[in-house]
Amino acid sequence: MSEMLSKELNEYVGGCQKELVALIDTICRIPSPSNHEERRAEFIRDWFEKEGCKGAYIDDALNVVYPFHCEAQKDLVVISAHTDTVFPDMEPFDVKYDGDTMSCPGVGDDTANVAILMLLAAWFTKNGRVPRQGILFVANSGEEGLGNLKGIRRVMKDYAGKVSEHISIDGSYDGIVTDAVGSLRYKIGLHTEGGHSYSKFGNLNAIQVLSSLIDTLYTYKVPQGGKSTYNVGTITGGTSINTIAQYAEMLFEYRSDVRENLAAMNEFFLSALDTYRKMDKVAIDCELLGERPCNGDIDEAKQNALRDKVLDTIESFTGKRVPCSSGSTDCNIPLSTGIPAVCFGGYLGVGAHTREEHISISSLHTGMLIVASVMESYF
């Protein structure tokens, strides 16, 4: 046992592993696509109530929020894990086991961490532990894709000016995220005159014009410093093989961990759209689907202290100094407003965002010890 963890909590974590796996299994079977987290939220809220975690509630964004000793309503710590998955399925998933492997879409990202958060929040409650500052335990919605971080946005809005730190329990414990990758995501619809492929040959084709726009966007050289990327994820359009397409659309995103670079990419993108809008017989629709901010102005000493606490904790249980990286996580929202935040998880696994995702069951013990130790540091 690491000296960073109390004997009582260490013994609890060691003794609850079967319960943890069973809870992960149960939650995995409750469909929870982004923007449709209702069923998981209700299960988690009801579970908290049964475990004596009074005051847990579901907000309008479908977060389950459990305020723990938050009467003072200042210098609160948010500890969250997201309930949504990237998969659109509304039918229950099956969970499969093979030796030390537990497989299910979303089992690691982020169901395992939600279950760890739930069990530990209940343990601190049942054992009468009182933190030095209030804690908001949050099973939040909308972290994935077009969820657009709606859950944490809502928490930070509802508790504006009262949150001092944020820890997102997401992913594994073989690295931590300390910086925000900002992004802008658009749906671009392009309209042209179209027509019959033979009798109206020569009319503008929406697919061809959109392809030309894509080619233009791909001439952009990303700015130096940090890491910046862009991508056309889908392209659709047209009516039939003998029809000149009147309409085509694409989904386009760009990302950067430097806010000035993100702004430069946005300027180029909008300039390219304006150029194509000036073409004769062309109309372009542009819909912003998602926006994730980069880091704001953060107190470097406070951010480094939080980072080092997590790094030290992981090292104490694994013997490894894991790397730090930038990423697109729930931490984007607090980091963008100057609130120190880090993201790490409580398991080891592979295949996140694929239907073959699986985790190592034995890794959950170490992972839960790490999360428990970071949580206990606030007591």
Write a short abstract of this structure.
The protein has 379 residues and is α+β, with helices and mostly antiparallel strands. The chain has helices spanning 7-15, 17-28, 38-50, 107-126, 150-158, 206-217, 259-277, 300-318, 332-336, 363-376, and strands at 57-58, 64-68, 76-82, 96-98, 101-103, 135-140, 163-169, 176-180, 182-191, 195-196, 228-237, 243-244, 247-256, 283-292, 324-327, 341-344, 349-350, 358-360.
What this model shows, in words?
By secondary structure, the chain is an alpha+beta fold. It folds into two domains: 7-179 and 294-376, 3-Layer(aba) Sandwich (Aminopeptidase), CATH 3.40.630.10; 182-292, Alpha-Beta Plaits, CATH 3.30.70.360. It is 35% helix and 25% strand. The chain contains ten helices and 18 strands. α2 packs across α4. The longest helix is centred in the N-terminal third of the chain and has 20 residues, at 107-126. The model has no long low-confidence stretch (mean pLDDT 96).
SSE diagram, text form:
Layout: H1 7-15, H2 17-28, H3 38-50, E1 57-58, E2 64-68, E3 76-82, E4 96-98, E5 101-103, H4 107-126, E6 135-140, H5 150-158, E7 163-169, E8 176-180, E9 182-191, E10 195-196, H6 206-217, E11 228-237, E12 243-244, E13 247-256, H7 259-277, E14 283-292, H8 300-318, E15 324-327, H9 332-336, E16 341-344, E17 349-350, E18 358-360, H10 363-376
Parallel strand pairs: 3-6, 3-7, 7-16, 8-15
Antiparallel strand pairs: 1-2, 2-6, 4-5, 5-18, 9-13, 9-14, 10-12, 11-13, 17-18
Helix pairs in contact: 1-10, 2-4, 4-10, 8-10
